[in-house]
């Protein structure tokens, strides 16, 4: 089990917060996670297995031979997309500090919140070596165990061109919505173009930038040959105090550039060390950032 029952109960008290209008949701900001509290009709959405059959519009079904659910005024149908970088560079860190396992826990937690609120959830693992693994779309808390069963055996491998993978994602027939990209952002071709593709299609983005503690503060010294975990490219270096300080400055400059980029485009940016407890990130920091309530 990715998380225990106590954590699950805490997650079930949360709801994801969307601040922008996207195609396919009701106009205006998200007002409530409760369903069926208003009698005023607002819109339709497609039926998803697990929906209450009493909510079907049988007149529409008789005409179109397709099942539709009636949405009431205080309801909304938020699409939630969770994109997890599954490239080889995410296979780093020991035990609880492992980047990919940390990313899977975040995906499971956000997915649990979305399913508990009745949102329309899709979880996708971005990997280039094979077709992206995907769960969903699904709606309703009854799908949680299937989501966890999907995530638990996943592995990471190969290289990921984030620009290409995000572009491919936007070109597929998916409804825009609240989107989380969880990645270390180690993509040789960059990622800015891919982010712009998502934004241009109406996706509301949160970027969770994961790095392991020894990527933030390398515990290395001396003459070394460093090997890129994804490409096997090698580089000989002599690592002394001066080079370590240069590394720190360049890392901070890189994160500052990403923060500036995201700020200009209305993207939430959260740099995260895997040393930070993932449940505190979701239950405390995400709440402070206005990502959940």
Annotation keywords:
9 helices, 34% helix, alpha/beta, 293 residues, six-stranded mixed β-sheet, two-stranded antiparallel sheet, elongated, 2 domains, Rossmann fold
Give a written overview of the molecule.
By secondary structure, the protein is an alpha/beta fold. The protein contains nine helices and ten strands. The strands form three sheets. It has a six-stranded mixed sheet with strand order 5-4-3-6-7-10, with helices on both faces. Helix 6 links the parallel strand 6 and strand 7. Helix 3 (99-116) packs antiparallel against helix 4 (144-151).
Layout of strands and helices, then pairs:
Layout: H1 5-11, E1 41-46, H2 58-64, E2 68-72, E3 79-85, H3 99-116, E4 120-126, E5 133-138, H4 144-151, H5 162-171, E6 178-183, H6 192-200, E7 204-211, H7 213-216, E8 222-227, E9 234-239, H8 241-265, E10 268-273, H9 278-288
Parallel strand pairs: 3-4, 3-6, 6-7, 7-10
Antiparallel strand pairs: 1-2, 4-5, 8-9
Explain briefly what this protein structure is.
With 293 residues, the protein is an alpha/beta fold.
Describe the global form: elongated
How large is the count of helical segments? 9
How would you name the CATH homologous superfamily of the largest domain?
von Willebrand factor, type A domain
Helix content: 25-40%
How would a textbook summarize the main sheet?
6 strands, mixed
On the 0-100 scale, what is the average pLDDT? 82
């Amino acid at each position: 089990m990715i998380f225990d029952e106590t954590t699950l109960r805490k997650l079930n008290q949360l709801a994801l917060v969307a601040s922008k209008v996207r195609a396919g949701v009701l106009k205006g900001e998200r007002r409530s996670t409760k369903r069926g509290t208003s009698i005023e009709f607002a819109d339709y959405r497609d039926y998803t297995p697990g929906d209450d059959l009493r909510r079907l519009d049988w007149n529409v079904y008789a005409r179109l031979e397709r099942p539709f659910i009636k949405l009431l005024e205080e309801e909304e149908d938020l699409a939630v997309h969770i994109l997890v970088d599954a490239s080889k560079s995410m296979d780093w860190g020991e035990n609880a500090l492992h980047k990919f396992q940390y990313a899977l826990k975040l995906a499971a937690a956000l997915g649990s919140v979305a399913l508990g609120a009745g949102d329309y959830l899709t979880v996708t693992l971005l990997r280039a070596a094979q077709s992206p693994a995907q769960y969903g779309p699904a709606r309703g808390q009854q799908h949680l165990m299937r989501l966890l069963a999907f995530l638990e055996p996943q592995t990471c491998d190969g290289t990921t061109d984030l620009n290409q993978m995000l572009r491919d994602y936007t070109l597929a027939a998916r409804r825009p919505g609240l989107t989380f990209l969880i990645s270390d952002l180690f993509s040789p071709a960059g990622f800015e173009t891919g982010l712009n593709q998502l934004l241009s299609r109406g996706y509301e983005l949160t970027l969770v930038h994961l790095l392991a503690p020894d990527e933030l503060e390398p515990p290395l010294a001396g003459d070394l040959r460093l090997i890129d975990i994804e490409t096997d490219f090698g580089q000989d270096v002599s690592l002394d105090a001066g080079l370590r300080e240069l590394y720190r400055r360049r890392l901070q400059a890189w994160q500052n550039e990403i923060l500036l980029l995201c700020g200009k485009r209305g993207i939430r940016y959260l740099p995260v060390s895997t040393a930070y407890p993932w449940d505190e990130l979701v239950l405390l920091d995400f709440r402070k950032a206005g990502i959940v309530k």
